[in-house]
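Section 3.1 - Work completed
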Amino acid sequence: MGITGYFELQWKCLVVVALRLLFLVPAGVPARSGESYLKDNITVRQGDSAVLKCNVDNKVSRVAWLNRTTILFTGNEKWSLDPRVVLLNTAVTEYSIKIINVNLYDEGPYVCSILTNKKPESTKVHLIVQVPARIVNISTDVSVNEGSNVSLMCLAIGRPEPSIFWKFRSSKGDGKGNRIITEGEYVEMTGITKDMSGSYDCITSNDISPPDVRTVQVTVNYPPVISRARSTGTAVGQKGVLWCEASAIPLADFQWYKGERRLFNGLNRVKIENKGKQSMLTFFNVSEEDYGNYTCVAMNTLGITNASIILYGPGAIHDVNNAALLPTSSFLLLTLVLTLSVLCKF
């Protein structure tokens, strides 16, 4: 049986029940005479109230409201046990009912059955209930290593059928990753990179109410990458500082070396401070022996990397991003000092 046949069977069943009921309903309740007709569908949102109207006049002897095979009212007598269904006394020319706080189970066909001079008539109403879109299931937050495959899921319900789309917000907070990436219940990512780390918003809507939004946080773990390492030129007797910055998830641990010798905080007039993705090596009262090459080592559970930083004399800056920024005179002086140091050993 097709869908059309199914609804026709529902209406026929309602009419048969209505006809049988009319001979049981006491006379005296007016209703409009005339042929049977089908009113437009009534559409309401879940939680709202629906008014089903039936026009009447003084030629009617019996009248009743039915929902499927359930009798709601016969005349002024209520048969329904549902307190949400009430008879409205708005006018003598109406025999209307009101359904308060409509839910999905109220949807379907309703019939106002009328008997006029032994001639049955009916007003048919089909109630359609709209349900706001709502997310009912979504993936939990995800933490994966770079290069892994990731699948996100978001399931929603609603009537009409809601649409679903995903929006990505980068964890960098630069706004460049704030964009819609796909439509549908699933997001598939192959070989995920650290640039794909961030918030994935599932947004569902069917224009019945404001969109429902829920978020999955995706964290991509990757080994350290030193993004900045620099030194300021420092005179003997002054304070010198070396900086090292490394991006990594989990955050990197830092170590400092001069040659093969590891440096420790508080020893040999140095202080080591690690804050987030930065590490700072501070020299107090720099001596000639402090000048030279230092190594910043950044490591986490996924890998290790390092960068060399030179502590120079005054007027020099060294940045691994821009190579050595060293005045010619300072470079010649440094070369001479290093050469003399080597000759003195012989």
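Second construct:
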Amino acid sequence: MNRLELVEKIALKHDLSKAEAARILATVMEEIIATVKKNDPLTLVGFGTFKLQERPARMGRNPATGQTVEIPAGRVPKFVPGSAFKQAVNKPCCCKCEK
């Protein structure tokens, strides 16, 4: 599923226009990014937690040349699924799922 398909499902499920659903989704995504960027975790109980993870500098290898290179330290977003989310995706599906 992509963003447009998600917008269509939200619009249909909540009797909204696609434009309204797209604005709501954009706002949710913007707030998640803004919160995590400030190094504050954002927890949606039953769904999961979005947080920032620090990555230390490390040595890597350039796959094209084989030369050793230093990969600088950085910050990366991380999502930790909640227990209800994990349980939901591990339940047998009630419909025909494509694999």
